Amino acid sequence: MTGPFLTIQTMKICYLDAFSGISGDMTVGALLDAGADFEGLNAALTSLGTGATFRVEKTKRQGISASKFHVEGGETKSHRHLTHILKMIDGAPLTVPVKQMSTAVFQKLGEAEAKVHAMPIEKVHFHEVGAVDSICDIVGACYCFDALGVDSIWSGPLNLGSGTVNTDHGVLPVPAPATAELVFGKPVYSRGPQMELTTPTGAALVSTLAERFDVMPAMAITASGYGAGTRDFPGQANVLRALIGDLQHTPESTTVSVIETNIDDANPQILGYTLERLLENGALDVTLTPIFMKKNRPGTMLTVIAAPGDQEALAQLILSETSTLGLRIYSAQRRVLAREITEIETQHGKVRIKHTATGAFTPEYDDCRRIARETGLPLKEVIAAANLAYQKTNR
């Protein structure tokens, strides 16, 4: 629907589906496979002055056609400081967005390495990540995102892999320390072969550039690409999928998780406390609905609306705080009108008003409640005064 009540916006997004993990070369390969220009990429990476050459190879992983990006030759220097890498990027004739994205990725990577090794970021030596291929992978991925005109990058949960990985610090469990630091707070899991599937380079790219970690949104797909990993292992295609498309949405159109459970043996005080805890821990909304359950027992249905990234934490909170033994979880689409907040002066004090382009408005409850408590006035009078003041200022 278009018109004065609903504004349709179009955004070009890239959705990264890391079901077999993510690395730098897989990211570049997927974006080239989705239509990024190799000649432009080659020129951009050559301008870094590493002496490396680049090629893209069409291959297959478990029967899936994919592009494998190769960085060959170049400098043999394997240890670099962050300042050196940032100077390389700044001195190259790259676009401003490519420089900004590449710098942000290396800055985040440097911060992760500094924390892992308990040293100032200025003293961090980049080992594997400081090698020519990793530098070119990161800058190359940023170039491709920019060349494809991507407005926003989204990602699904990251498959980290399992087992161990060989590093300059010896054999370490997967995920490697820097990778674990980079994906902190992001949705991750482990499935498939016992090997490293998400590398520090891949983790740095997605954790820095992805604006959201969520299920794939409703979108009109215009291109897709598969970036091949180095190995082809059985039972699972070792590829990263990139889906490019137009996301048409109203402001704040999102996918949410709905968590529900029916409870017939809980103390009402427990349910009230659980509601408060859920809201404090990021739930978008919580409701308690009286219901009748089997054998005509009165009960309560607890319903929680949550961002997908908060789903598991809130589910665990419900299981720990209540007597329920199971939950229903499903995805739903949420539509919320874009709204602005304007502070107005009333006869009792300042009140924030939430209002939309449709003309709907409502005073901020917390402001009205505070004024009612401070003045001793009935809350309904404070709300009425706020409504009247807003209407007068917007005639």
Characterization of the model:
This protein is α+β, with helices and mostly antiparallel strands. It has three domains: 16-248, no CATH class; 254-334, Alpha-Beta Plaits, CATH 3.30.70; 339-393, Ubiquitin-like (UB roll) (Roll). The chain has helices at 24-33, 38-46, 82-91, 96-117, 132-147, 177-182, 200-209, 268-280, 311-321, 365-375, 379-393, and strands spanning 9-17, 52-61, 64-73, 80-81, 125-126, 152-155, 158-159, 164-167, 170-173, 188-189, 210-213, 220-228, 239-249, 254-263, 285-292, 298-306, 328-334, 339-346, 349-356, 361-363. The strands form seven sheets. The chain has a five-stranded mixed sheet. Strands 15-16-14-17 form a four-stranded antiparallel sheet, with helices on one face. Strand 15 (285-292) and strand 16 (298-306) form a beta hairpin. Helix 3 packs antiparallel against helix 4. The longest helix has 22 residues, at 96-117. The radius of gyration is 26 Å and the shape is globular. It starts with 8 loop residues before the first strand and ends with a helix.
SSE arrangement:
Blueprint: E1 9-17, H1 24-33, H2 38-46, E2 52-61, E3 64-73, E4 80-81, H3 82-91, H4 96-117, E5 125-126, H5 132-147, E6 152-155, E7 158-159, E8 164-167, E9 170-173, H6 177-182, E10 188-189, H7 200-209, E11 210-213, E12 220-228, E13 239-249, E14 254-263, H8 268-280, E15 285-292, E16 298-306, H9 311-321, E17 328-334, E18 339-346, E19 349-356, E20 361-363, H10 365-375, H11 379-393
Parallel strand pairs: 1-6, 6-11, 7-10
Antiparallel strand pairs: 1-13, 2-3, 4-5, 8-9, 12-13, 14-16, 14-17, 15-16, 18-19, 19-20
Helix pairs in contact: 1-5, 3-4, 4-5, 4-7, 8-9, 10-11
